[in-house]
Design a protein that fits this description.
Helix 2 packs antiparallel against helix 3. By secondary structure, this protein is an alpha+beta fold. A hairpin with a 3-residue loop joins strand 2 and strand 3. The protein has 5 helices and 4 strands. It has a 4-stranded antiparallel sheet. The chain has one domain: GIY-YIG endonuclease, CATH 3.40.1440.10. Helices cover 45% and strands 18% of the residues. The termini are far apart.
Length: 116
Amino acid sequence: MGFLNSLIGIAKSAGIGTTKLEEAKTIAPNSMGCYKIYYNGLKYVGKAEDGLRKRFVQYYNGTTAHYPSAKKIYENRDRILVSWVVLGSGEKCREVEAQWIRELKPEWNKQRGWGD
């Protein structure tokens, strides 16, 4: 069982699968990357150029709750699931975030440019 738990921990830290926001604030890497927020389905995608763990801590503690999507994340923080992917550059983060917004159209992201 110890080996299996180790594999699960490695997979979660790599962003494979989903985990609770509360857990992500301790296991996510300090690397830059993109993430997805789930609350009864996919609600938001974003980028974390200053580090994924830092972003998840900010969401959980409410330090970024000054804009609508972050406020929703904070208000539902104990029911939020997250997944992420580590990326090697800020440029790649911006590119992946834009692609996800375009393709997935998450409800809590701004809707400009979707043709709605």
